[in-house]
Design goal:
Elements (H helix, E strand, L loop, with lengths): L7 E8 L2 H7 L3 E7 L7 E8 L2 E8 L3 E6 L4 E8 L6 E2 L2 E2 L5 E4 L4 E5 L4 E9 H12 L10 E3 L2 H20 L7 H21 L1 E3 L3 H20 L6 H8 L3 H11 L4 H19 L7 H7 L5 H12 L3 H5 L10
Amino acid sequence: MQSLRGGSTNVIRRFLDPDQYQSAIRGGDSLYSVLGRGTFRAELITIEVGRLTLQRGREDLPRLAASGMPSERVGILGWFGDDQLPVVRGVQMHQGRFLCLGPGMQSHHRTFGVNDFVSLILDAGDLTRAAIDTTGRELTVTAGTVVRPPDDLSTWLMSVIDAATRAVRTTPGIFASPLATDALEQALLEPMIMCLMHGDERTETIPRRRRVDIAKKFEAAVEASVASPLLMPDLCRIIGVPQRTLRSVCEEQLSLSPHKFLALRRLHMTREMLLRSDHRSVTVTQIATSYGFWELGRFAVIYRSLFGESPSATLRRLPDASPSG
């Protein structure tokens, strides 16, 4: 199998800010809400060989996030670890299974603790050519399909990924030579293609795909109205579904009720504004009420339980801004 393109880069980044972590993930979206108390820590390894991008990310707090694949790109998503794996697009993932990522595909991910994910992404045309070179057959990736390959194939792929990411940690320049780049590209592509071709498929149904779309529309409506809160009937009218349907979709896709999701997003938006604001010119009360929190005592208790500090401590955390004229 010929290399797709020469060249290699590899980067290890560590994060204390969940939004920065989310933005560094290929296909990451703006939505990233931490659901557990504690100090957020994450590591993201990115390896690019040829036109293939491998990412391995590990974070330690439960969260709800959204992702969106670039157009013309395809790939797979899998996980390491023995803990409960995420719910993605309303499906509980399991060890040894991979989620197929398609062009423009959007998803919600609900994790429950430590999350150690891996993704392999490349252009759809490059994957097709690599599959023909490897097996003599074309390969099409169907977005949202869950693939369960034979254990020996999934173990093969995950062991190569684990070895590559460990090598980057211990020997940062290991993939600097063209020979090493080509070897890693082929070592990743071959088991990836075999897993996709020989795995049992669970294709996403049209009703589930529609429920994924409803969840994305709900998220967009919430984000658009978070600074001028709408009532749930208003949101349902914008989305075009009854409240009962929205409640069912949110429980399936987000593992949260619509009301809890709405409150969670307002809490995170409030925190972002507190972090960006100067405590000398604005108060917690002004920011909290602007996001619909009028019971300030209850707001402070909920805020501290989620973020581990009071709203006023968050407001004072950034260095003082320069005095205005």
